[in-house]
Design a protein that fits this description.
CATH topology of the domain at 2-40 and 195-283 and 469-525: FAD/NAD(P)-binding domain
CATH architecture of the domain at 2-40 and 195-283 and 469-525: 3-Layer(bba) Sandwich
Largest sheet: 7 strands, mixed
CATH superfamily of the domain at 2-40 and 195-283 and 469-525: FAD/NAD(P)-binding domain
Shape: globular
Distance between the termini: 24 Å
Strand content: 15-25%
Length: 527
C-alpha cells in the first residue's frame, strides 16, 4: 500500500489525472467511494432517469433551506460510482468561453488563460471528424459525438432562436461561443462515455495503476505540513495507504473541501467546533460556492414529444431500438440544443445559457418521473452568478454529509438575470416555428401579471443547474485555498484538482472543464 501518488476520486478530473500520471511512469492508487457496476447501467444514456436519486449511484445530498428562494430545499445529485458525476450527468459537452479562462489568468492564475488550456481541451477528446481541427481534438481518449436522434421540435427551436436574432453557430466548442447550435455529448456509439471509461478503464491492467472502489477516505495523513497518505474505510475496516510524492484530491466540489476540513485544513473556528486539530488555517475552504441559477420551464406542445416514450409501449419500442442499433431516444444526452446569448445588447458577453430537452419531467423526493403528456423543457441559466454559498461540517465523521448553503439569488443582479431569461423563454415560446406548437408554459405567470408576480415565481422556481464550483478556490492571494499550481496553500505533497478550484464560474456545463483540469494537473504535479 505504498505508491508515488494517491488520487482520491475517479470522476471527471481524477480519471484523466490518474491516466496521465501512469502514462508518465508514476505508480498511482486511485480511490473511489462508490462501487463498481456489474450491469453497466450508467452506460445507457437515458438511465440517468434511474441513477439520479438512487443511493447506489448518487451521494444524494440535500441542501439547507435557501432564504433567497423562499426557503427552498432540494437534492443535489453527485455521482458515487466509478466515473463520478460523469457517470450520471446529462452528458453535455461544452468547454466554456475563451474569455472565461483569460479571466482566470487575469485574477492571478498564471498558466490558466485560454491559450494555455486549449491544448489540454484538444488533447483529451476525439470529436466528430467534421469539427474544426484548429480548436478540436482528434486523438484523445474521450469521445464527443453528435446526436444520434433528433426530435423535429429541436430543429424548430433552433429556427426560432435565429428568427429572434440569435446567430446560428456550427460548433459551440469551436472558435466562437455565442449563438445557438446542436448539442454535442460525451457519448460513443450510443453509449455514455464517462471519464472513467475513457481514461482509466483501458489502463486497469497496467501494473503502475491500482484501483480500489468502495473505499471511503476518512482523512489525509499529515506529517507536519506534508501529506504522506490517507486512511481508508473499506468493508468495515480502516486501512492506510502511503504516498511517496503526495496526495491529490479530485473528489469534487463537495467532497474535496470536506476531506481538507476533516484533515485539519480549514477555518480554525469551524474545525474547533468539531474537535479537529488545526494543521493549516485556511478559512476559505468550503466558501465561495458558486452555482448556475436558472429555470426549468416545462412547455406543453400540440405535437408528440419525447414523453411519448414514457408509456409502456413507448418504453418497449425505445429499448428495442437502442438494443438493436444503439440509436433512438435512449442513445442521446439530455439536451438537444444549446444557446449562449446576451440577454440585452448592453451585456459585454453572453450572460445566459439555454438548453432544450425534448421531454418534460417532474422531480419527486429526488427521483425523476416522466409523465405521458406532450412536454418539452426550456432551460435558462445565469452564466456568471455573483451570489455565493458555503459548505460547513456537520460532524467529524467522514460518513456525515456536509451542510450545503446554496443562496442562489442572494445578489440582486442574479435575480434580474433570471428574470431576463424568463423573458427570453416567453419570446421563444411565441416565435415561429417552435412557438406555433406551444400550448402553454406550465406554472409561468402571464406577462401581464407584472414584476412582483414574476419575481415571486422566479424565487420559487429557480433551481441549481448542478454545476457547483469554487469551494477550494485557486488563486495567488493569501486567502486562496490552492495555488495556480494546484498545491494546497500551507502544505507540501497535497493538491486539489477538480471543479472546486474554479476562481470564477464559466459560461457552460462544467464536465469538460473538470476533465481539462485533470489533464493539466498531471503536468503541474508530475512535470
Amino acid at each position: 500500500m505504498e505508491f508515488d501518488y494517491i488520487v482520491v476520486g475517479s470522476g471527471s478530473a481524477g480519471s484523466p489525472l490518474t491516466a496521465r500520471l501512469v502514462e508518465k511512469g508514476a505508480s498511482v492508487l486511485l480511490l473511489e467511494a462508490g462501487k463498481r457496476e456489474k450491469l453497466h447501467l450508467t452506460r445507457v444514456p437515458a438511465a440517468l432517469m434511474y441513477t439520479i436519486g438512487n443511493n447506489r449511484y448518487d451521494w444524494n445530498y440535500v441542501t439547507e433551506p435557501d432564504p433567497s428562494r423562499s426557503g427552498l430545499q432540494e437534492a443535489w445529485p453527485r455521482g458515487r460510482v466509478p466515473g463520478g458525476s460523469s457517470a450520471i450527468n446529462g452528458m453535455i459537452f461544452i468547454r466554456g468561453a475563451a474569455a472565461d479562462y483569460d479571466a482566470w489568468e487575469t485574477m492571478g492564475n498564471k498558466g490558466w488563460g485560454w491559450d494555455s488550456v486549449l491544448p489540454y481541451f484538444r488533447k483529451m477528446e476525439t470529436a466528430d471528424d467534421d469539427r474544426d481541427n484548429s480548436h478540436r481534438g482528434g486523438m484523445g481518449p474521450l469521445r464527443v459525438s453528435s446526436l444520434r436522434w433528433k426530435h423535429p421540435l429541436s430543429q424548430k427551436f433552433i429556427d426560432s432562436f435565429v428568427n429572434a436574432g440569435v446567430p446560428r453557430n456550427p460548433d459551440l466548442n469551436g472558435s466562437s461561443h455565442e449563438g445557438v447550435a446542436w448539442n454535442q455529448g460525451s457519448t460513443t456509439g450510443g453509449l455514455r462515455h464517462s471519464a472513467f471509461d475513457a481514461f482509466v478503464l483501458p489502463r486497469l491492467k497496467d501494473n503502475k495503476l491500482t484501483f480500489m472502489d468502495d473505499a471511503l477516505v476518512e482523512r489525509i495523513v499529515m506529517e507536519g505540513k506534508r501529506a504522506s497518505g490517507v486512511d481508508i474505510m473499506r468493508r468495515g475496516k480502516t486501512i492506510r495507504a502511503t504516498a511517496r510524492r503526495g496526495v491529490v484530491l479530485s473528489a469534487g466540489s463537495i467532497n474535496s473541501p470536506q476531506l481538507l476540513m476533516l484533515s485539519g485544513i480549514g477555518d480554525p473556528a469551524e474545525l474547533g467546533r468539531h474537535g479537529i486539530e488545526v494543521r493549516v488555517a485556511s478559512p476559505d475552504v468550503g466558501r465561495n460556492l458558486m452555482e448556475h441559477p436558472g429555470l426549468y420551464v416545462r412547455a406543453e406542445m400540440d405535437v408528440k414529444t419525447g414523453n411519448a416514450y414514457a408509456s409502456a409501449l413507448g418504453r418497449l419500442r425505445a429499448a428495442g431500438q437502442w438494443a438493436l442499433s444503439r440509436s433512438g431516444v435512449l442513445s442521446v444526452p439530455t439536451a438537444q440544443v444549446l444557446a449562449f446569448l446576451k440577454s440585452t445588447p448592453e451585456q459585454e458577453v453572453p450572460d445566459l445559457q439555454f438548453h432544450l430537452f425534448p421531454f418534460g419531467y417532474f422531480s419527486e423526493s429526488g427521483r425523476l418521473r416522466v409523465p405521458t403528456r406532450n412536454l418539452v423543457t426550456i432551460l435558462a441559466n445565469v452564466n456568471y452568478p455573483k451570489s455565493t454559498g458555503r459548505l460547513e461540517l456537520r460532524s467529524s465523521d467522514p460518513r456525515t454529509p456536509l451542510a450545503i448553503y446554496p443562496r442562489l439569488l442572494d445578489h440582486p443582479d442574479d435575480l434580474d438575470c433570471v428574470l431576463r431569461g424568463l423573458a427570453w423563454i416567453r419570446r421563444l415560446a411565441s416565435t415561429p416555428p417552435f412557438g406555433n406548437h406551444v400550448r402553454e408554459l406550465i406554472d409561468v405567470p402571464p406577462e401581464r401579471a407584472g414584476r412582483d408576480a414574476e419575481e415571486q415565481y422566479v424565487r420559487k422556481a429557480t433551481v441549481p443547474f448542478l454545476h457547483p464550483v469554487g469551494t477550494c478556490r485557486m488563486g495567488s492571494d493569501d486567502k486562496a485555498v490552492v495555488t495556480p499550481e494546484l498545491r494546497v496553500r500551507g502544505t507540501e505533497g497535497l493538491w486539489v484538482a477538480d471543479a472546486s478550484i474554479f476562481p470564477r464560474h464559466i459560461a457552460g456545463n462544467t464536465n469538460a472543464t473538470a476533465i481539462m483540469i485533470g489533464e493539466r494537473a498531471a503536468d503541474l504535479i508530475h512535470p
